[in-house]
# Entry
Amino acid sequence: MQIALNSNSCLYRCQARRLLQLQPFLLPCSTPFRFPTPRHLRCRPMASSPPSVQVRDIIDLTPKETQIFQKLLEVVRHFSLPTQLRVAGGWVRDKLLGKECYDIDIALDDMLGREFCEKVNDYLSYTGEEKQGIGVIQCNPDQSKHLETARMRLFDEWIDFVNLRSEDYSENSRIPTMRFGTAEEDAYRRDLTINSLFYNINTSSVEDFTGRGMEDLKSGKIVTPLPPKDTFLDDPLRVLRAIRFGARFGFILDEDLKLAASCDDVRAAIADKISRERIGHEIDLMISGNEPVKAMTYICDLLLFSVVFSLPPNVKPAISEGCDRLCVGYINAGWNLLQLVGSSTFNDEQRRLYLYAALFLPFRKTLYEGGKARKLNCKLIPVVNHIIRNSLKLRASDVDTVVSIHSAVEKFLSLIPFIESSENMQISEAKWGIEILDLPVTSKLRILTGLLLREIKGFWRVALMVSTLLYPSDINHAEDISKKNIQLDKRRKVFEMVENAIVGLGLEEVWELKPLVNGKDIMNVLQLKSGGPLVKDWQQKLIQWQLAHPSGTAEDCLDWMRQKRAKRS
# Structure
């Protein structure tokens, strides 16, 4: 079924609306600081030439969409309702761009979503069809759910129902006061013009109440329906949404929008009015999207890096000038290297955490004092821990994995020359945190590599690829990264060389290796009645022996232990 664009439905008027302004906001001393970025080191703005966007003049409905919409219209006609049914937002945008979308949100002009769902069930009962369960998602302003939403399944698809609304904001909150609104008011209160389009099910037409939605979609522009600074001060989360959609579709950000997004008032509002969970959710969508580098570049261009990725006070060593630009340079290098090696190298989760590890690579040795009291001798914690855990509020497992990747990077950097030359190299035991057995070079290589992979497990390829961005370690790569002189092909060859060596050593899944000797066997040899540090120490030595002797048996392992112990006696 095809639906033509009804140009008569486009409305070009904007109702007068008084928007509250935030007073200038000064960050207190305890607020994480802004990265010191001199003018010559700031991110260079991305090219702003409009993209070529293919926008359809008609919307092609799938058979299932036709079934759903026809059923909803039957409900309206059966009860003689004056209700106008409109599909809102992303579904309309994506269908006009020729993309499939399964997220159907129905906007109602005269009743709550729950009330209409009950009408649907009444009609299904009348026609002898099975009634459907109704799920009601209560409003949750902290999660950007400002209105009650009802959900029900029709033809095996979840459909959301919500009333059209208008909203008024207070000065110190991004949570608006909601009321029923017209379709035009609803369109103007949305974040972007490309997301303000409706598809009217009753009239089978696309409605563009801002008068700009279709135009901006065709020209590939990210524009707000109302003045951008007012829009962003009302709801600062819209800044990050604008960046995300601009990167996702390859659209250019409107110049007025960029000026508004980077002004001090809006930057302060982002820090003050948006929960860190919402910031982290938007950043995670960008990192997991199709253009993560473009999204991070926009954040850098708009001077939002220190707002989004806020740091704790008193970091050591101090953050260097241009660090935000360097972070973007590393994620750009990492992204391009992954495309060269092959994006199928990683699964989605590995790819996501790989990009975070690359983005925060300049912070890998930066620490801060942990603990509430900030006492003497308090633990020094990687600043990346703070960014992911506190600034973005991502999962604890994400924190652990990215910090582990950075730790593994340092060890890989000491191993790669070892693998390249096969010579007897000096390995820092302090860096590895273990006493390495005195064995031939080939055995030592297998031991060190095996121990590293047992630490990082399934993310070893991720850590290896991140390591190649810093290899060789005796060269300062910051200038090359900044100038994009990163010699990707050489780094790809290093990655593949080390990967093949690890596979050739039979270590690809070495973390699955079970110890040949258990604690009880060790205690018998040592003639101990209980375990302790000595048993743990021997367990580590025996794992090294096992890595050096992949064909060895449990008895061979115990014999070596007895001989080693006898020499020490």
The longest helix spans residues 396-421. Residues 88 and 198 are 5 Å apart (CA to CA).
